[in-house]
Design goal:
The complex is a heterodimer of chains A (120) and B (282). Chain A is mostly helical. Helices cover 48% and strands 2% of the residues of chain A. In chain A, helix 3 packs across helix 6 (103-114). Chain B has a single domain, classed as Beta Barrel (Porin). The chains are: A mainly alpha (120), B mainly beta (282).
């Protein structure tokens, strides 16, 4: 009897924890800035998502580090950073194994390249 | 003369007694004709099979899915990019199992129950029916990227019915109608509540080897979704306390929500993953 009550409790708690949310519901909806710079916009994305492995020295088999402005700039120019983060193929995607970065963050980095990879 | 009488009287009695004994044996047989071991592993490949862990048995299952074999020697056919799942299953009774697991695919924790509802019998119900439910927690979602993230968005649920039939000593198949709900989906136009039909089969090759395959037919995938239906083919090797399953699959995730909802590989261009499930009973 007691186990049955616990079971109902668990089911009840879970039932109230249903939501229908997708990426666009959870991201900031501020429009892209006209000029994207490394220090204002890009560094925080890289620090939150990449530096865990792409540190200096890189760990977990990562081939390059993404700690400095020069590192990141070179990764975009030479290592196809944008194609790695915007891929839909989990075998190719970075961060490795996903989840894929939200599209607004990817757009920011693409915008940064379009603006000429400015530091500040 | 006297002995003749005794013989004449006793023979029919003996004969009847033998009939009774034979009848009893017959009843015993029909009572116990549950089909055994439609599947030898707890999973076919990705899908759960209708096998359960026995009472008070503790099973540890290590599963790996390596990276894509497409990249060849660059990542040694995917061995550099492995995804691991550690799964513990305990049998509370022969018909009721609980399990917990952690997968490195998006750092997912999972708790599951599996329970048998009906059993296949030779002269009775033609299928084994097992229910499977699980809750998954995706701990890889990051508040830095998704500022409005709450804990409940990390949750996902699975409810699955596994219907198997052992057709003959060598061949078994399974249908797995599945409902799963992810509180958060990456694709904006994907329904959070998703339906799929799993199809699986096993064919015995020798005493120890069998070939297995399963396919997940997703019924309401978003139109431009990059995700694919998972198809997996593999071999089971039975070695005493182990069942060793080796396979190729186009899904790298191992939880039901993962391989049905987020399989990205593609058989047509060789973008598939090698993997294995290894189970050990304690």
């Amino acid at each position: 009897m007691k186990t049955r009550q616990i079971l109902y409790l668990i089911i009840g708690v879970l039932a109230f924890n249903c939501s229908n949310i997708s990426e666009e519901d959870l991201i900031d909806t501020t429009p892209l800035p006209t000029t994207v710079t490394y220090l204002n916009n890009v560094k925080s994305i890289i620090d939150n998502n990449c530096v865990l492995c792409h540190s200096n020295p890189p760990i977990n088999g990562a081939p390059i580090s993404l700690v400095t402005f020069e590192n990141v700039k070179s990764a975009i120019e030479n290592n196809g950073l944008i194609s790695r983060i915007s891929s839909n193929d989990l075998a190719f995607l970075m961060p490795f194994g996903g989840p894929r970065l939200p599209q607004n963050k990817i757009d920011l980095i693409i915008q940064w390249e379009t603006n000429g990879l400015l530091e500040e | 003369m006297k002995t003749l009488f005794i013989l004449i009287f006793c023979i029919p009695i003996l004969a009847i007694a033998q009939d009774d004994l034979l009848d009893e044996i017959d009843i015993e047989i029909t009572k116990n004709q549950f089909a055994t071991a439609a599947f030898k592993g707890l999973k076919i490949v990705n899908f759960e099979s209708t096998k359960l862990v026995a009472k008070q048995e503790f099973t540890f299952i290590v599963s790996h899915r390596f990276g894509s074999i497409k990249n060849g020697f660059d990542s040694f056919f995917g061995l550099d990019d492995a995804v691991t799942r550690l799964n513990f299953v305990y049998g509370i009774s022969d018909g009721f199992n609980i399990g917990v697991s952690r997968s490195s695919f998006q750092k997912i924790y999972e708790a599951s129950t599996k329970y048998r509802l009906l059993r296949q019998q030779e002269k009775g119900f033609p299928f084994t029916v097992v229910g499977f439910n699980s809750v998954v927690v995706n701990t890889a979602l990051d508040e830095a990227n998704l500022p409005k993230l709450e804990f409940k968005h990390r949750l996902g649920y699975t409810a699955q019915l596994l219907i198997s039939r052992k057709v003959n000593a060598n061949f078994s198949f399974e249908l797995a109608p599945t409902f799963f709900h992810d509180n958060y989906v990456q694709q904006n136009n994907q329904d959070n509540s998703q339906f799929a039909l799993g199809l699986g089969a096993r064919h015995k090759l020798t005493k120890r080897w069998s070939i297995n395959a399963d396919y997940g037919w997703h019924l309401n995938r978003a139109e431009n979704s990059p995700f694919k239906n998972p198809l997996s083919i593999g071999f089971d090797l039975e070695t005493g306390g182990h069942v060793f399953q080796m396979h190729f699959s186009n899904a790298q995730a191992m939880n039901t929500n993962g391989f049905l909802g987020q399989a990205t590989g593609d058989w047509s261009d060789g973008n598939i993953y090698f993997g294995f499930n290894l189970s050990r009973v304690f």
